[in-house]
Protein backbone atom coordinates (compact mmCIF):
# COMPACT_ATOMS: atom_id res chain seq x y z
CA UNK A 1 0.00 0.00 0.00
CA UNK A 2 2.87 2.37 0.84
CA UNK A 3 4.46 2.04 -2.60
CA UNK A 4 1.22 2.62 -4.52
CA UNK A 5 0.54 6.04 -6.01
CA UNK A 6 -2.46 8.09 -4.94
CA UNK A 7 -4.44 7.37 -8.13
CA UNK A 8 -4.12 3.61 -7.65
CA UNK A 9 -5.23 3.95 -4.03
CA UNK A 10 -8.28 5.91 -5.16
CA UNK A 11 -9.06 3.25 -7.76
CA UNK A 12 -8.97 0.58 -5.09
CA UNK A 13 -11.09 2.74 -2.78
CA UNK A 14 -13.72 3.27 -5.50
CA UNK A 15 -13.93 -0.47 -6.04
CA UNK A 16 -14.25 -1.20 -2.33
CA UNK A 17 -17.03 1.38 -1.96
CA UNK A 18 -18.86 -0.16 -4.92
CA UNK A 19 -18.37 -3.68 -3.56
CA UNK A 20 -19.48 -2.70 -0.07
CA UNK A 21 -22.67 -0.98 -1.18
CA UNK A 22 -23.65 -3.61 -3.75
CA UNK A 23 -22.98 -6.44 -1.28
CA UNK A 24 -25.03 -4.69 1.40
CA UNK A 25 -28.05 -4.11 -0.81
CA UNK A 26 -27.68 -7.50 -2.50
CA UNK A 27 -27.70 -9.37 0.80
CA UNK A 28 -30.61 -7.26 2.06
CA UNK A 29 -32.52 -8.09 -1.13
CA UNK A 30 -31.88 -11.79 -0.55
CA UNK A 31 -32.71 -11.71 3.15
CA UNK A 32 -36.12 -10.08 2.65
CA UNK A 33 -37.04 -12.71 0.04
CA UNK A 34 -36.55 -10.73 -3.16
CA UNK A 35 -33.90 -12.87 -4.84
CA UNK A 36 -35.73 -15.24 -7.12
CA UNK A 37 -35.76 -18.28 -9.37
CA UNK A 38 -32.45 -18.02 -11.21
CA UNK A 39 -30.48 -17.29 -8.07
CA UNK A 40 -31.79 -20.55 -6.66
CA UNK A 41 -31.10 -22.34 -9.93
CA UNK A 42 -27.43 -21.38 -9.99
CA UNK A 43 -27.01 -22.07 -6.30
CA UNK A 44 -28.43 -25.55 -6.88
CA UNK A 45 -26.08 -25.95 -9.85
CA UNK A 46 -23.02 -25.13 -7.74
CA UNK A 47 -24.30 -27.35 -4.90
CA UNK A 48 -24.81 -30.27 -7.30
CA UNK A 49 -21.26 -29.84 -8.59
CA UNK A 50 -20.03 -30.24 -5.02
CA UNK A 51 -21.94 -33.54 -4.81
CA UNK A 52 -20.40 -34.79 -8.06
CA UNK A 53 -23.63 -34.27 -10.02
CA UNK A 54 -21.94 -32.04 -12.54
CA UNK A 55 -24.10 -29.24 -13.96
CA UNK A 56 -27.34 -30.99 -12.97
CA UNK A 57 -30.38 -29.01 -11.84
CA UNK A 58 -34.02 -29.91 -11.27
CA UNK A 59 -34.83 -26.20 -11.50
CA UNK A 60 -33.32 -26.05 -15.00
CA UNK A 61 -35.37 -29.13 -15.86
CA UNK A 62 -38.55 -27.44 -14.66
CA UNK A 63 -37.74 -24.50 -16.92
CA UNK A 64 -36.74 -26.59 -19.93
CA UNK A 65 -38.57 -26.93 -23.22
CA UNK A 66 -39.38 -30.59 -22.55
CA UNK A 67 -41.13 -29.58 -19.32
CA UNK A 68 -42.74 -26.33 -20.50
CA UNK A 69 -43.88 -27.48 -23.95
CA UNK A 70 -43.74 -31.29 -24.07
CA UNK A 71 -45.23 -32.03 -20.66
CA UNK A 72 -42.26 -34.11 -19.47
CA UNK A 73 -41.96 -34.43 -15.69
CA UNK A 74 -38.89 -32.50 -14.45
CA UNK A 75 -35.94 -34.64 -13.37
CA UNK A 76 -33.13 -34.23 -10.88
CA UNK A 77 -30.38 -35.22 -13.33
CA UNK A 78 -31.15 -32.71 -16.08
CA UNK A 79 -27.90 -31.23 -17.44
CA UNK A 80 -27.92 -27.42 -17.49
CA UNK A 81 -25.33 -27.39 -20.30
CA UNK A 82 -28.13 -28.16 -22.73
CA UNK A 83 -29.43 -24.63 -22.15
CA UNK A 84 -26.21 -22.68 -21.76
CA UNK A 85 -22.53 -23.59 -22.06
CA UNK A 86 -21.41 -22.18 -18.67
CA UNK A 87 -18.20 -24.18 -18.25
CA UNK A 88 -16.44 -21.24 -16.54
CA UNK A 89 -18.44 -22.06 -13.42
CA UNK A 90 -15.79 -24.70 -12.78
CA UNK A 91 -13.44 -21.83 -11.91
CA UNK A 92 -15.62 -20.70 -9.03
CA UNK A 93 -17.05 -23.87 -7.53
CA UNK A 94 -14.09 -24.17 -5.07
CA UNK A 95 -15.16 -20.80 -3.64
CA UNK A 96 -18.71 -22.10 -3.25
CA UNK A 97 -17.28 -25.23 -1.60
CA UNK A 98 -15.81 -23.06 1.18
CA UNK A 99 -19.21 -21.50 1.93
CA UNK A 100 -21.99 -23.45 0.16
CA UNK A 101 -24.76 -20.89 0.53
CA UNK A 102 -26.73 -18.71 -1.92
CA UNK A 103 -25.23 -15.59 -0.31
CA UNK A 104 -21.81 -16.75 -1.50
CA UNK A 105 -22.99 -16.15 -5.05
CA UNK A 106 -23.85 -12.55 -4.13
CA UNK A 107 -20.29 -11.97 -2.93
CA UNK A 108 -18.89 -13.81 -5.96
CA UNK A 109 -20.90 -11.71 -8.40
CA UNK A 110 -19.99 -8.47 -6.64
CA UNK A 111 -16.33 -9.47 -6.47
CA UNK A 112 -16.13 -10.31 -10.17
CA UNK A 113 -17.77 -7.03 -11.16
CA UNK A 114 -15.46 -5.09 -8.84
CA UNK A 115 -12.26 -6.73 -10.05
CA UNK A 116 -13.42 -6.18 -13.60
CA UNK A 117 -13.44 -2.46 -12.81
CA UNK A 118 -9.88 -2.58 -11.53
CA UNK A 119 -8.77 -4.27 -14.75
CA UNK A 120 -10.54 -1.49 -16.64
CA UNK A 121 -8.50 1.06 -14.69
CA UNK A 122 -5.28 -0.78 -15.53
CA UNK A 123 -6.37 -0.86 -19.19
CA UNK A 124 -7.04 2.89 -19.16
CA UNK A 125 -3.62 3.58 -17.63
CA UNK A 126 -1.99 2.02 -20.70
CA UNK A 127 -2.82 5.17 -22.67
CA UNK A 128 -4.46 7.72 -20.36
CA UNK A 129 -3.44 9.89 -17.42
CA UNK A 130 -4.20 8.72 -13.87
CA UNK A 131 -6.90 11.38 -13.46
CA UNK A 132 -8.70 10.49 -16.68
CA UNK A 133 -8.39 6.79 -15.88
CA UNK A 134 -10.10 7.39 -12.53
CA UNK A 135 -12.97 9.14 -14.30
CA UNK A 136 -13.34 6.12 -16.58
CA UNK A 137 -13.37 3.82 -13.56
CA UNK A 138 -15.94 6.00 -11.79
CA UNK A 139 -18.12 5.87 -14.89
CA UNK A 140 -17.98 2.08 -14.82
CA UNK A 141 -19.06 1.82 -11.19
CA UNK A 142 -21.78 4.44 -11.78
CA UNK A 143 -23.16 2.83 -14.94
CA UNK A 144 -26.74 1.57 -14.83
CA UNK A 145 -25.58 -1.38 -16.94
CA UNK A 146 -23.15 -2.32 -14.13
CA UNK A 147 -25.17 -1.44 -11.02
CA UNK A 148 -28.38 -3.14 -12.15
CA UNK A 149 -26.90 -6.56 -13.05
CA UNK A 150 -24.71 -6.47 -9.93
CA UNK A 151 -27.86 -6.22 -7.79
CA UNK A 152 -29.62 -9.01 -9.67
CA UNK A 153 -29.74 -12.74 -9.16
CA UNK A 154 -26.41 -14.40 -9.82
CA UNK A 155 -25.84 -14.88 -13.54
CA UNK A 156 -22.96 -16.03 -15.70
CA UNK A 157 -22.77 -12.53 -17.23
CA UNK A 158 -21.01 -11.17 -14.13
CA UNK A 159 -17.79 -12.71 -15.49
CA UNK A 160 -17.86 -10.56 -18.64
CA UNK A 161 -15.94 -7.49 -17.32
CA UNK A 162 -13.21 -9.64 -15.78
CA UNK A 163 -12.37 -11.65 -18.89
CA UNK A 164 -13.19 -9.02 -21.53
CA UNK A 165 -11.13 -6.25 -19.91
CA UNK A 166 -8.49 -8.87 -19.14
CA UNK A 167 -8.33 -9.74 -22.84
CA UNK A 168 -8.02 -6.08 -23.87
CA UNK A 169 -5.35 -5.42 -21.21
CA UNK A 170 -3.21 -8.44 -22.04
CA UNK A 171 -3.32 -7.53 -25.73
CA UNK A 172 -2.17 -3.98 -24.97
CA UNK A 173 0.64 -5.41 -22.78
CA UNK A 174 1.49 -8.09 -25.39
CA UNK A 175 1.21 -10.85 -22.77
CA UNK A 176 0.23 -13.53 -25.25
CA UNK A 177 -0.13 -16.44 -22.85
CA UNK A 178 -2.49 -14.47 -20.62
CA UNK A 179 -4.26 -13.14 -23.71
CA UNK A 180 -4.99 -16.67 -24.94
CA UNK A 181 -6.21 -17.63 -21.47
CA UNK A 182 -8.56 -14.64 -21.30
CA UNK A 183 -9.94 -15.48 -24.76
CA UNK A 184 -10.61 -19.06 -23.65
CA UNK A 185 -12.29 -17.94 -20.42
CA UNK A 186 -14.33 -15.31 -22.30
CA UNK A 187 -15.71 -18.00 -24.60
CA UNK A 188 -16.45 -20.22 -21.61
CA UNK A 189 -18.82 -17.70 -20.01
CA UNK A 190 -21.75 -18.74 -22.20
CA UNK A 191 -22.07 -19.97 -25.76
CA UNK A 192 -23.05 -16.67 -27.43
CA UNK A 193 -21.75 -14.06 -24.98
CA UNK A 194 -18.03 -14.55 -25.45
CA UNK A 195 -18.45 -15.08 -29.17
CA UNK A 196 -20.15 -11.72 -29.69
CA UNK A 197 -17.53 -9.79 -27.71
CA UNK A 198 -14.62 -11.63 -29.32
CA UNK A 199 -16.03 -11.15 -32.84
CA UNK A 200 -16.46 -7.41 -32.20
CA UNK A 201 -12.88 -7.18 -30.94
CA UNK A 202 -11.64 -9.01 -34.01
CA UNK A 203 -13.52 -6.54 -36.22
CA UNK A 204 -11.92 -3.64 -34.37
CA UNK A 205 -8.38 -5.03 -34.71
CA UNK A 206 -8.94 -5.62 -38.43
CA UNK A 207 -10.64 -2.33 -39.33
CA UNK A 208 -8.25 -0.24 -37.25
CA UNK A 209 -5.35 -2.15 -38.83
CA UNK A 210 -3.72 -2.56 -35.44
CA UNK A 211 -3.47 -6.30 -36.13
CA UNK A 212 -5.37 -7.42 -39.21
CA UNK A 213 -4.29 -11.06 -39.08
CA UNK A 214 -5.12 -11.45 -35.40
CA UNK A 215 -8.44 -9.69 -35.93
CA UNK A 216 -9.45 -12.05 -38.72
CA UNK A 217 -8.33 -15.01 -36.62
CA UNK A 218 -10.40 -13.86 -33.62
CA UNK A 219 -13.49 -13.38 -35.82
CA UNK A 220 -13.03 -16.87 -37.25
CA UNK A 221 -12.55 -18.39 -33.78
CA UNK A 222 -15.63 -16.60 -32.43
CA UNK A 223 -17.86 -17.63 -35.32
CA UNK A 224 -16.65 -21.23 -35.34
CA UNK A 225 -16.98 -21.53 -31.56
CA UNK A 226 -20.57 -20.29 -31.46
CA UNK A 227 -21.51 -22.47 -34.45
CA UNK A 228 -19.96 -25.63 -33.00
CA UNK A 229 -21.28 -25.15 -29.45
CA UNK A 230 -24.84 -24.23 -30.44
CA UNK A 231 -25.24 -26.64 -33.36
CA UNK A 232 -23.40 -29.73 -32.15
CA UNK A 233 -22.44 -29.58 -28.48
CA UNK A 234 -25.57 -28.23 -26.76
CA UNK A 235 -27.94 -30.59 -28.65
CA UNK A 236 -26.07 -33.52 -27.09
CA UNK A 237 -27.73 -32.57 -23.79
CA UNK A 238 -31.11 -31.11 -24.82
CA UNK A 239 -32.91 -29.10 -27.52
CA UNK A 240 -33.42 -26.09 -25.25
CA UNK A 241 -31.03 -23.74 -27.00
CA UNK A 242 -32.76 -24.08 -30.36
CA UNK A 243 -36.38 -24.58 -29.30
CA UNK A 244 -36.48 -22.44 -26.16
CA UNK A 245 -34.18 -19.59 -27.17
CA UNK A 246 -33.50 -19.34 -30.90
CA UNK A 247 -37.05 -20.25 -31.96
CA UNK A 248 -38.66 -17.74 -29.59
CA UNK A 249 -36.22 -14.84 -29.42
CA UNK A 250 -35.53 -14.76 -33.17
CA UNK A 251 -38.86 -16.08 -34.39
CA UNK A 252 -39.24 -13.31 -36.99
CA UNK A 253 -36.32 -14.84 -38.91
CA UNK A 254 -37.18 -18.55 -38.81
CA UNK A 255 -40.15 -20.77 -39.65
CA UNK A 256 -38.98 -23.97 -37.99
CA UNK A 257 -39.61 -24.74 -34.29
CA UNK A 258 -36.11 -26.15 -33.93
CA UNK A 259 -33.73 -23.77 -35.75
CA UNK A 260 -29.96 -23.77 -35.67
CA UNK A 261 -27.78 -20.69 -35.26
CA UNK A 262 -26.88 -20.85 -38.94
CA UNK A 263 -30.55 -20.94 -39.90
CA UNK A 264 -31.18 -17.82 -37.82
CA UNK A 265 -28.29 -16.03 -39.53
CA UNK A 266 -29.56 -17.09 -42.94
CA UNK A 267 -33.01 -15.84 -42.00
CA UNK A 268 -31.54 -12.42 -41.21
CA UNK A 269 -29.80 -12.30 -44.58
CA UNK A 270 -32.86 -13.36 -46.55
CA UNK A 271 -35.36 -11.18 -44.67
CA UNK A 272 -33.83 -7.68 -44.82
CA UNK A 273 -37.16 -6.04 -44.06
CA UNK A 274 -37.52 -7.89 -40.77
CA UNK A 275 -33.87 -7.18 -40.02
CA UNK A 276 -34.25 -3.43 -40.46
CA UNK A 277 -37.47 -3.40 -38.46
CA UNK A 278 -35.81 -5.25 -35.58
CA UNK A 279 -32.81 -2.93 -35.63
CA UNK A 280 -34.68 0.36 -35.59
CA UNK A 281 -38.20 -0.20 -34.25
CA UNK A 282 -39.39 1.06 -31.86
CA UNK A 283 -36.77 3.75 -32.35
CA UNK A 284 -37.47 5.57 -29.07
CA UNK A 285 -36.66 2.50 -26.96
CA UNK A 286 -33.44 1.88 -28.84
CA UNK A 287 -32.29 5.48 -28.55
CA UNK A 288 -33.14 5.58 -24.85
CA UNK A 289 -31.26 2.32 -24.29
CA UNK A 290 -28.13 3.55 -26.05
CA UNK A 291 -28.33 6.90 -24.23
CA UNK A 292 -28.45 5.15 -20.84
CA UNK A 293 -25.25 3.30 -21.78
CA UNK A 294 -23.40 6.48 -22.77
CA UNK A 295 -24.76 8.69 -19.95
CA UNK A 296 -22.15 7.86 -17.25
CA UNK A 297 -19.39 8.53 -19.81
CA UNK A 298 -20.67 12.00 -20.61
CA UNK A 299 -21.45 10.73 -24.15
CA UNK A 300 -17.74 10.78 -24.98
CA UNK A 301 -16.92 8.65 -28.03
CA UNK A 302 -20.57 8.60 -29.10
CA UNK A 303 -19.52 9.43 -32.67
CA UNK A 304 -16.45 7.19 -32.65
CA UNK A 305 -16.59 4.52 -35.40
CA UNK A 306 -14.27 2.27 -33.36
CA UNK A 307 -16.57 2.37 -30.32
CA UNK A 308 -19.54 1.40 -32.48
CA UNK A 309 -17.45 -1.38 -34.02
CA UNK A 310 -16.63 -2.74 -30.56
CA UNK A 311 -20.26 -2.57 -29.41
CA UNK A 312 -22.01 -3.24 -32.70
CA UNK A 313 -22.46 -7.02 -32.63
CA UNK A 314 -23.79 -7.16 -29.02
CA UNK A 315 -26.16 -4.23 -29.67
CA UNK A 316 -27.47 -5.73 -32.89
CA UNK A 317 -28.07 -9.05 -31.15
CA UNK A 318 -30.05 -7.33 -28.36
CA UNK A 319 -32.07 -5.22 -30.80
CA UNK A 320 -33.10 -8.27 -32.83
CA UNK A 321 -34.41 -10.33 -29.91
CA UNK A 322 -38.11 -10.54 -29.11
CA UNK A 323 -40.05 -11.94 -26.20
CA UNK A 324 -37.57 -10.89 -23.46
CA UNK A 325 -36.66 -7.62 -21.80
CA UNK A 326 -33.37 -7.45 -23.69
CA UNK A 327 -33.50 -3.65 -23.77
CA UNK A 328 -33.87 -3.22 -20.02
CA UNK A 329 -30.51 -1.77 -19.06
CA UNK A 330 -30.76 -3.04 -15.48
CA UNK A 331 -30.78 -6.66 -16.64
CA UNK A 332 -27.74 -8.86 -17.25
CA UNK A 333 -27.97 -8.65 -21.06
CA UNK A 334 -26.62 -5.08 -20.94
CA UNK A 335 -23.26 -6.33 -19.74
CA UNK A 336 -22.35 -7.61 -23.22
CA UNK A 337 -22.20 -3.97 -24.38
CA UNK A 338 -20.09 -2.68 -21.48
CA UNK A 339 -16.57 -3.95 -22.45
CA UNK A 340 -16.63 -2.58 -25.99
CA UNK A 341 -18.19 0.71 -24.87
CA UNK A 342 -15.55 1.42 -22.22
CA UNK A 343 -12.62 0.19 -24.29
CA UNK A 344 -13.81 2.31 -27.20
CA UNK A 345 -14.08 5.32 -24.91
CA UNK A 346 -10.51 4.76 -23.69
CA UNK A 347 -9.31 4.67 -27.30
CA UNK A 348 -11.24 7.85 -28.08
CA UNK A 349 -9.76 9.71 -25.11
CA UNK A 350 -6.27 8.54 -26.09
CA UNK A 351 -6.80 10.29 -29.44
CA UNK A 352 -8.48 13.40 -27.93
CA UNK A 353 -6.79 14.11 -24.57
CA UNK A 354 -7.20 17.88 -24.92
CA UNK A 355 -10.99 17.57 -24.74
CA UNK A 356 -10.66 16.67 -21.03
CA UNK A 357 -11.37 20.24 -20.04
CA UNK A 358 -12.98 21.62 -16.86
CA UNK A 359 -16.13 22.37 -18.87
CA UNK A 360 -16.40 18.80 -20.13
CA UNK A 361 -15.71 17.41 -16.66
CA UNK A 362 -18.78 19.30 -15.42
CA UNK A 363 -20.91 17.66 -18.13
CA UNK A 364 -19.36 14.29 -17.30
CA UNK A 365 -20.02 14.75 -13.57
CA UNK A 366 -23.69 15.51 -14.28
CA UNK A 367 -23.91 12.33 -16.36
CA UNK A 368 -22.36 10.30 -13.55
CA UNK A 369 -24.80 11.63 -10.95
CA UNK A 370 -27.81 11.15 -13.24
CA UNK A 371 -26.74 7.59 -14.01
CA UNK A 372 -26.56 6.71 -10.32
CA UNK A 373 -29.91 8.38 -9.62
CA UNK A 374 -31.58 6.58 -12.51
CA UNK A 375 -30.03 3.30 -11.39
CA UNK A 376 -31.46 3.62 -7.89
CA UNK A 377 -34.85 5.11 -8.74
CA UNK A 378 -35.52 2.44 -11.38
CA UNK A 379 -35.43 -0.08 -8.50
CA UNK A 380 -33.30 -2.59 -10.44
CA UNK A 381 -34.37 -6.17 -9.82
CA UNK A 382 -36.45 -5.00 -6.84
CA UNK A 383 -33.25 -4.31 -4.89
CA UNK A 384 -34.80 -1.17 -3.37
CA UNK A 385 -38.40 -2.32 -3.02
CA UNK A 386 -38.18 -1.63 0.71
CA UNK A 387 -37.57 2.03 -0.22
CA UNK A 388 -39.31 2.52 -3.57
CA UNK A 389 -42.84 1.24 -4.34
CA UNK A 390 -43.03 -1.60 -6.84
CA UNK A 391 -46.12 0.06 -8.28
CA UNK A 392 -47.72 3.47 -7.86
CA UNK A 393 -51.05 2.69 -9.55
CA UNK A 394 -52.15 0.61 -7.82
CA UNK A 395 -49.94 1.28 -4.81
CA UNK A 396 -47.70 -1.66 -3.90
CA UNK A 397 -45.08 -1.13 -1.23
CA UNK A 398 -43.84 -3.03 1.81
CA UNK A 399 -41.78 -1.35 4.48
CA UNK A 400 -38.41 -2.78 5.45
CA UNK A 401 -39.58 -3.67 8.96
CA UNK A 402 -42.61 -5.57 7.65
CA UNK A 403 -40.57 -7.36 4.99
CA UNK A 404 -37.90 -8.28 7.55
CA UNK A 405 -40.50 -9.69 9.96
CA UNK A 406 -42.09 -11.77 7.22
CA UNK A 407 -38.70 -13.07 6.08
CA UNK A 408 -37.88 -14.13 9.66
CA UNK A 409 -41.13 -16.11 9.81
CA UNK A 410 -40.34 -17.66 6.43
CA UNK A 411 -36.93 -18.85 7.61
CA UNK A 412 -38.51 -20.48 10.65
CA UNK A 413 -41.03 -22.27 8.44
CA UNK A 414 -38.41 -23.42 5.93
CA UNK A 415 -36.20 -24.84 8.68
CA UNK A 416 -38.86 -27.51 9.24
CA UNK A 417 -38.13 -29.04 5.81
CA UNK A 418 -35.46 -31.79 5.94
CA UNK A 419 -32.42 -31.06 3.72
CA UNK A 420 -32.86 -34.30 1.72
CA UNK A 421 -36.57 -33.80 1.05
CA UNK A 422 -38.01 -32.87 -2.34
CA UNK A 423 -39.89 -29.57 -2.38
CA UNK A 424 -42.26 -27.54 -4.53
CA UNK A 425 -42.11 -23.83 -3.68
CA UNK A 426 -43.11 -20.39 -4.89
CA UNK A 427 -40.54 -18.29 -6.73
CA UNK A 428 -39.07 -16.15 -3.97
CA UNK A 429 -38.63 -19.06 -1.55
CA UNK A 430 -36.59 -21.09 -4.04
CA UNK A 431 -33.16 -19.49 -3.34
CA UNK A 432 -33.57 -20.31 0.35
CA UNK A 433 -34.22 -24.00 -0.45
CA UNK A 434 -31.72 -24.37 -3.29
CA UNK A 435 -29.11 -26.65 -1.74
CA UNK A 436 -30.96 -29.88 -2.36
CA UNK A 437 -31.28 -32.38 -5.19
CA UNK A 438 -35.02 -32.11 -5.87
CA UNK A 439 -36.58 -28.65 -5.96
CA UNK A 440 -39.35 -27.35 -8.22
CA UNK A 441 -41.38 -24.20 -8.67
CA UNK A 442 -45.16 -24.39 -8.50
CA UNK A 443 -47.23 -25.59 -10.25
CA UNK A 444 -44.71 -28.44 -10.75
CA UNK A 445 -45.42 -31.04 -8.05
CA UNK A 446 -43.93 -34.25 -9.49
CA UNK A 447 -40.30 -35.10 -10.14
CA UNK A 448 -38.25 -37.90 -11.68
CA UNK A 449 -35.73 -39.17 -9.14
CA UNK A 450 -32.94 -40.17 -11.53
CA UNK A 451 -34.03 -43.81 -11.65
CA UNK A 452 -36.99 -43.16 -13.96
CA UNK A 453 -39.41 -43.08 -11.04
CA UNK A 454 -41.97 -40.26 -10.98
CA UNK A 455 -42.67 -39.19 -7.41
CA UNK A 456 -44.74 -36.42 -5.82
CA UNK A 457 -42.64 -33.87 -3.97
CA UNK A 458 -42.43 -34.42 -0.21
CA UNK A 459 -43.20 -30.85 0.83
CA UNK A 460 -45.05 -27.88 -0.59
CA UNK A 461 -44.44 -24.36 0.65
CA UNK A 462 -46.05 -21.22 -0.73
CA UNK A 463 -45.70 -17.60 0.29
CA UNK A 464 -49.25 -16.43 -0.18
CA UNK A 465 -48.55 -13.21 1.72
CA UNK A 466 -46.10 -12.11 -0.95
CA UNK A 467 -48.36 -13.26 -3.78
CA UNK A 468 -51.24 -11.31 -2.27
CA UNK A 469 -49.09 -8.17 -1.95
CA UNK A 470 -48.17 -8.18 -5.62
CA UNK A 471 -51.31 -9.61 -7.23
CA UNK A 472 -53.05 -6.24 -7.44
CA UNK A 473 -50.40 -4.97 -9.86
CA UNK A 474 -48.69 -7.93 -11.49
CA UNK A 475 -50.11 -10.64 -13.74
CA UNK A 476 -47.44 -13.17 -12.72
CA UNK A 477 -48.66 -13.24 -9.12
CA UNK A 478 -52.33 -13.43 -10.12
CA UNK A 479 -51.54 -16.38 -12.37
CA UNK A 480 -49.57 -18.10 -9.59
CA UNK A 481 -52.47 -17.77 -7.16
CA UNK A 482 -54.92 -19.14 -9.73
CA UNK A 483 -52.69 -22.19 -10.25
CA UNK A 484 -51.55 -22.91 -6.70
CA UNK A 485 -54.74 -22.47 -4.64
CA UNK A 486 -56.63 -25.33 -6.38
CA UNK A 487 -53.61 -27.60 -5.88
CA UNK A 488 -53.60 -26.82 -2.17
CA UNK A 489 -57.35 -27.35 -1.90
CA UNK A 490 -57.21 -30.75 -3.57
CA UNK A 491 -54.16 -31.93 -1.61
CA UNK A 492 -55.61 -30.91 1.76
CA UNK A 493 -59.11 -32.22 1.08
CA UNK A 494 -57.82 -35.59 -0.15
CA UNK A 495 -55.66 -36.00 2.93
CA UNK A 496 -52.56 -36.71 0.82
CA UNK A 497 -50.90 -33.65 2.33
CA UNK A 498 -51.38 -32.12 5.73
CA UNK A 499 -50.82 -28.52 6.82
CA UNK A 500 -47.72 -28.44 9.01
CA UNK A 501 -47.50 -24.67 9.37
CA UNK A 502 -49.61 -21.69 8.40
CA UNK A 503 -48.17 -18.38 9.59
CA UNK A 504 -48.10 -14.89 8.13
CA UNK A 505 -49.33 -16.16 4.77
CA UNK A 506 -46.76 -18.97 4.57
CA UNK A 507 -48.36 -22.39 4.25
CA UNK A 508 -46.24 -25.55 4.52
CA UNK A 509 -47.68 -28.92 3.52
CA UNK A 510 -46.12 -32.30 4.20
CA UNK A 511 -46.98 -35.45 2.27
CA UNK A 512 -48.42 -38.17 4.51
CA UNK A 513 -48.72 -35.89 7.54
CA UNK A 514 -51.95 -34.92 9.30
CA UNK A 515 -52.85 -31.25 9.45
CA UNK A 516 -51.87 -29.54 12.70
CA UNK A 517 -54.73 -28.29 14.90
CA UNK A 518 -56.14 -24.96 13.78
CA UNK A 519 -54.18 -24.84 10.54
CA UNK A 520 -57.08 -25.86 8.29
CA UNK A 521 -59.18 -22.93 9.48
CA UNK A 522 -56.20 -20.61 9.06
CA UNK A 523 -55.86 -21.83 5.49
CA UNK A 524 -59.55 -21.26 4.80
CA UNK A 525 -59.33 -17.69 6.12
CA UNK A 526 -56.22 -17.03 4.06
CA UNK A 527 -57.76 -18.57 0.98
CA UNK A 528 -60.74 -16.24 1.19
CA UNK A 529 -58.39 -13.24 0.98
CA UNK A 530 -56.62 -14.52 -2.13
CA UNK A 531 -59.28 -13.66 -4.68
CA UNK A 532 -57.47 -11.57 -7.26
CA UNK A 533 -59.10 -8.26 -8.22
CA UNK A 534 -60.95 -8.21 -11.52
Secondary structure layout plus pairing:
Elements: H1 6-31, H2 37-50, H3 58-62, H4 65-68, H5 93-98, H6 102-125, H7 130-142, H8 144-150, H9 160-173, H10 176-187, H11 193-207, H12 212-233, H13 240-249, H14 261-270, H15 272-280, H16 283-294, H17 305-320, H18 338-351, H19 358-377, H20 400-414, E1 423-425, E2 439-441, E3 446-448, E4 454-456, E5 459-463, H21 464-471, H22 475-494, E6 497-503, E7 506-511, H23 519-528
Parallel strand pairs: 1-2, 1-5
Antiparallel strand pairs: 3-4, 5-7, 6-7
Helix pairs in contact: 1-6, 1-7, 6-7, 6-9, 9-10, 10-11, 11-12, 11-17, 17-18, 21-22
Description:
By secondary structure, the protein is mainly alpha-helical. It contains 23 helices and seven strands. The protein has helices at residues 6-31, 37-50, 58-62, 65-68, 93-98, 102-125, 130-142, 144-150, 160-173, 176-187, 193-207, 212-233, 240-249, 261-270, 272-280, 283-294, 305-320, 338-351, 358-377, 400-414, 464-471, 475-494, 519-528, and strands at 423-425, 439-441, 446-448, 454-456, 459-463, 497-503, 506-511. The protein has a five-stranded mixed β-sheet, with helices on both faces. The protein has a two-stranded antiparallel sheet with strand order 3-4. Helix 11 packs antiparallel against helix 12 (212-233), helix 17 packs antiparallel against helix 18 and helix 21 (464-471) packs antiparallel against helix 22. The radius of gyration is 24 Å and the shape is globular. The N and C termini lie far apart (63 Å). The mean pLDDT is 93.
